[in-house]
């Protein structure tokens, strides 16, 4: 089985993957003079941490080709081959340790395809839908595989997968989701401090909070009851460094609930920070009047920017202070920057030194000085992913000398997407009010659509709410997440269009074209 | 375990009906190509779950599966249910889990299972000793540190907190760049949920500031120590400007004239960077800029901006961020 530029991919069963991306024939040679050889500063005092850092930098310098133009492109076909093989032929027995993460494996593969511009054919889509539905627990919620216990994390991966391949109607996956059961499952995991167990008797951590909020938002089952107390849990995970840890401690043995602040458990970490910031955006529609709780966003920004490795780290992100860079943090940390506009940070207003394009091409020092629309160095991050995170025979990886896997393939590609594109909330469209007689079809094509009543949902999940309050709240939730749009004029694809991946929605890590139909469906919008 | 007969061929299991993962005829995507041993064991696991069996042999089966796949949370969940149902000796279970936690220390479930056991047993002391053996192997293991902190907070015993300060000191002595250890220090001393910042004694704060300054002087370009420094000051509402004399030593170029020993004035409160320290430290320049920002006069804001400008060159990867900080500094004047 091979994947080629313009044709289709044949699988053994005769189904095909359609390649929507048309490969550019011109090979663009990237500016190769990108590497500053600046090494870790040890101050003449070597410790285990600085030694490890030094050795990894050695390996990065070694991994750079003597003729860097040879690997200056995204190896799209190799990655597609790698992914298609996993999806259609299966995963070798070493993947048994991810037997309880099967929806994740599917999501990582399919969302990677989406970012690479590939859609599945209807036959394979149906197979994916059937596979995912086999993992739904009879009482609601999805397990890590068929007949496994329901768990919040695989539920998120399952719902995201259904956003990519599913549809309304019988067998399409969306109507088969047991939303009432799922809601009750979520409620059963809730703790008095606003946290959630990831499953019955499972651990408490903020990944669960993120996955629960994302899924509940997508499926229109997010209620005030579910959200109550969650903001206090999320903000109590913020550590003195500014990033977020996995959990916090709310009770002492006497059983009393500590008021804020509660001690955070664990250190500031890229993955948990991503979960916390996205959770904070999901919670915004629930802020009432003046009682808006706060997190220290500026301290978070400082911490986020400090995770990007300069010099010989080639612009990759690490996940914790003084740790090693890893390609997956391209998304976990890089993706956080795309959430900042929704957290009230205006980036576009920053005055910048803009190089003349012609001058820049001749100036070795300015290769990272292009117009930067982010608070991190998005050009350098693209370099890390293209030069160091791509495995030669397909798939992406943590760093050179590590093997590629489905997880690192997606989160490198998603990080590349974040570095290339700006997907932002669009206030002018969010606040638009329908005028009598306007043509809805036309408005939909223009992506300008009034928000209709969300009352058509038969689920009466939160009896404490009046019908009007419920409708208003659903509109707020829908509005918060639906109107995100790629600002195409701000895209910056290093290496030319051959390296372009699709834009992803920073809250869900789904393309806008996948998340919007699902939201429209579950919120009763045309 | 490697010689184990398949459950399907073991007469002791003949009463259990194995259940395949997928129903007949299913054509799943991304199938995992399981080993025979794993497929067989999971078929029988699904069988006992369906039957609701909770017994010693279920403990054997779940242990077997955990060794093959320590991330199988349903197996862990069912094992815990079984332990409680048959009133198994949880102390014995904990010791059995020592080896598994060592081998699979990066798995969420091995730590969470211990937490469930300790909640039942109420015996934190030996557990802290065990955790130490893991941190000796991997001094930055995220789950292990989080679990250690949970034990301290959950049992909230004065003697444990006090011993912990000594432990964190040892860890920092081994590697003063270990951010997990600095984070733990912050947890033990400042964010353990027991003290309000108003109750902090001046003497305690002074000692702590001295500790971090001494560490910075050994290896000045160490973000972990500076972040802790800033964190303590912010937590106790101390203005950064109280640290001006120390920070300046690290935020400026080395003064080449003052290298002669006779001229050096020893200031123990503000230890100087060592001879091999690379100056100026970007992170100290940022700190100094924030000291100037606190004063908010146009002259001080100019000084801060000048430092941010230098950082766009010295700390080039964060150029965009330093430009943003410049814009933020300017805004302070108009607020």
UniProtKB/TrEMBL annotation, chain A:
Task: Kindly state which reaction or reactions the protein catalyses.
Answer: L-cysteinyl-[protein] + (2E,6E)-farnesyl diphosphate = S-(2E,6E)-farnesyl-L-cysteinyl-[protein] + diphosphate
State the superkingdom.
Answer: Eukaryota
Q: Does the keyword Metal-binding apply?
A: yes
Keywords of the record, alphabetical order, are:
Metal-binding, Prenyltransferase, Repeat, Transferase, Zinc
Q: Relay the cofactor remark from the entry.
A: Binds 1 zinc ion per subunit.
For the keyword Ligase, the answer is no
Cofactor(s) for this UniProt protein = Zn(2+)
Write one Gene Ontology MF term. protein farnesyltransferase activity
Q: Which Pfam families match?
A: Prenyltrans (PF00432)
User: GO:BP terms for this protein?
Assistant: prenylation
EC no. given is: 2.5.1.58
Listed GO cellular component terms?
A: protein farnesyltransferase complex
Looking at the record, the residues that make up the Prenyltransferase alpha-alpha toroid domain are 74-508
* Functional summary from the UniProt entry: Catalyzes the transfer of a farnesyl moiety from farnesyl diphosphate to a cysteine at the fourth position from the C-terminus of several proteins. The beta subunit is responsible for peptide-binding.
Family in the record: Belongs to the protein prenyltransferase subunit beta family.
Entry protein name:
Protein farnesyltransferase subunit beta
Q: Which organism is it from?
A: Clathrus columnatus
TrEMBL record, chain B:
List the lineage, top down.
Eukaryota, Fungi, Dikarya, Basidiomycota, Agaricomycotina
This protein's GO cellular component annotations are:
CAAX-protein geranylgeranyltransferase complex; protein farnesyltransferase complex
Enzyme Commission number: 2.5.1.58, 2.5.1.59
Q: Which domain of life is it from?
A: Eukaryota
Q: Does the keyword Magnesium apply?
A: yes
Quote the protein name from its UniProt record.
Answer: Protein farnesyltransferase/geranylgeranyltransferase type-1 subunit alpha
Q: What is stated as this protein's family in its record?
A: Belongs to the protein prenyltransferase subunit alpha family.
Question: Gene3D superfamilies, alphabetically?
Answer: Protein prenylyltransferase
Q: Name one Pfam family in it.
A: PPTA
Q: Which UniProt keywords apply?
A: Magnesium, Prenyltransferase, Repeat, Transferase
User: Which cofactors are named for this entry?
Assistant: Mg(2+)
Q: Which GO terms describe its molecular function?
A: CAAX-protein geranylgeranyltransferase activity; protein farnesyltransferase activity
């Amino acid at each position: 089985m091979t994947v080629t530029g313009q044709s289709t991919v044949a699988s053994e069963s005769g189904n095909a993957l359609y390649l929507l991306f048309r490969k550019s024939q011109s090979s663009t040679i990237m500016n190769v003079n990108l590497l500053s050889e600046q090494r870790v500063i040890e101050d003449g005092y070597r410790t285990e941490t600085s030694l490890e850092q030094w050795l990894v930098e050695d390996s990065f310098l070694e991994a750079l080709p003597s003729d860097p133009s040879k690997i200056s492109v995204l190896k799209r076909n190799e990655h597609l081959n790698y992914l298609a093989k996993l999806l259609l032929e299966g995963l070798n027995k070493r993947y048994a340790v991810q037997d309880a993460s099967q929806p994740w494996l599917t999501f990582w593969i399919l969302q990677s395809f989406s970012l690479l511009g590939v859609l599945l054919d209807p036959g394979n889509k149906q197979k994916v839908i059937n596979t995912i539905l086999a993992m739904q627990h009879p009482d609601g919620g999805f397990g890590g595989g068929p007949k496994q216990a329901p768990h919040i994390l695989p539920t998120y991966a399952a719902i995201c997968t259904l956003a990519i391949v599913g549809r309304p109607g019988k067998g399409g996956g969306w109507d088969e989701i047991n939303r009432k059961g799922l809601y009750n499952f979520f409620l059963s995991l809730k703790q008095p401090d606003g946290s959630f167990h990831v499953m019955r008797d499972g651990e408490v951590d903020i990944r669960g909070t993120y996955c629960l909020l994302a899924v509940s938002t997508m499926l229109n089952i997010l209620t005030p009851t579910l959200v109550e107390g969650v903001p206090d849990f999320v903000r109590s995970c913020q550590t003195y460094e500014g990033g977020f840890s996995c959990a916090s401690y709310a009770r002492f043995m006497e059983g009393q609930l500590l008021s804020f602040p509660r001690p955070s458990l664990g250190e500031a970490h890229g993955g948990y920070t991503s979960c916390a910031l996205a959770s904070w955006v999901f919670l915004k529609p629930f802020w009432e009047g003046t009682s808006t709780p706060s997190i220290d966003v500026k301290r978070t920004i400082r911490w986020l920017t400090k995770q990007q490795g300069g010099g010989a780290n080639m612009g990759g992100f690490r996940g914790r202070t003084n740790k090693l860079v890893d390609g997956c943090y391209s998304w976990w940390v890089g993706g956080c920057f795309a959430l900042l506009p929704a957290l009230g940070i205006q980036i576009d207003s920053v005055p910048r030194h803009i190089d003349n394009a012609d001058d820049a091409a001749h100036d070795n020092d300015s290769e990272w000085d292009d117009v930067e629309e982010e608070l991190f160095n998005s050009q350098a991050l693209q370099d890390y992913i293209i030069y160091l995170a791509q495995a030669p025979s397909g798939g992406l990886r943590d760093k050179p000398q590590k093997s590629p896997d489905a997880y690192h393939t997606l989160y490198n590609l998603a990080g590349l997407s974040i570095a290339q594109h700006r997907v932002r909330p669009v206030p002018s469209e969010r606040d638009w009010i329908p005028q009598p007689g306007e043509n809805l079809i036309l408005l939909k094509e223009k992506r300008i659509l009034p928000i209709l009543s969300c009352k058509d949902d038969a689920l009466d999940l939160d009896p404490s709410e009046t019908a009007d309050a419920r409708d208003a709240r659903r509109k707020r939730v829908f509005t918060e997440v639906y109107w995100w749009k790629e600002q195409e004029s701000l895209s910056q694809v290093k290496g030319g269009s051959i390296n372009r991946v699709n834009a992803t929605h920073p809250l869900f890590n789904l393309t806008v074209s996948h998340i919007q139909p699902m939201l429209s469906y579950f919120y009763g919008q045309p | 375990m490697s010689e184990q007969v398949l459950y399907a061929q073991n007469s002791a299991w003949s009463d259990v009906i194995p259940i395949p993962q997928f129903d007949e005829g299913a054509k799943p995507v991304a199938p995992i190509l399981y080993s025979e041993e794993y497929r067989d064991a999971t078929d029988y696991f699904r069988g006992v779950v369906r039957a609701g069996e909770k017994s010693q042999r279920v403990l054997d089966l779940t242990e077997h599966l955990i060794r093959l796949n320590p991330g199988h949370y349903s197996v862990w969940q069912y094992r815990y249910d079984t332990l409680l149902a048959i009133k198994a000796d949880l102390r014995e279970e904990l010791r059995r889990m020592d080896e598994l936690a060592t081998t699979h220390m990066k798995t969420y479930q091995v730590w969470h299972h211990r937490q469930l056991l300790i909640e039942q047993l109420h015996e934190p002391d030996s557990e802290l000793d065990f955790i130490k053996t893991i941190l000796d192997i991997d001094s930055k293991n995220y789950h292990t540190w989080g679990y250690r902190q949970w034990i301290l907070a959950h049992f909230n015993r004065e003697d444990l907190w006090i011993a912990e300060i000594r432990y964190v000191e040892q860890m920092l002595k081994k590697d003063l760049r270990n951010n997990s250890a600095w984070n733990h220090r912050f947890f033990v001393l400042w964010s353990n949920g027991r003290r309000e910042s108003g109750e902090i004694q001046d003497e305690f704060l002074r000692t702590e500031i001295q500790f971090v300054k001494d560490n910075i002087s050994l290896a000045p370009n160490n973000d972990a120590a500076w972040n802790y420094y800033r964190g303590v000051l912010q937590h106790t509402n101390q203005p950064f400007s109280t640290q001006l004399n120390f920070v300046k030593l690290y935020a400026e170029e080395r003064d080449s004239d003052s290298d002669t020993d006779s001229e050096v004035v020893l200031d123990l409160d503000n230890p100087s960077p060592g001879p091999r320290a690379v100056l100026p430290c970007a992170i100290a320049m940022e700190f100094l800029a924030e000291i100037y920002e606190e004063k908010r006069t146009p002259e001080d804001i100019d000084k801060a901006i000048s430092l941010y400008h230098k950082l766009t060159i010295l700390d080039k990867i964060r150029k965009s961020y330093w430009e943003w900080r410049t814009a933020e500094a300017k805004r302070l004047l108009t607020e």
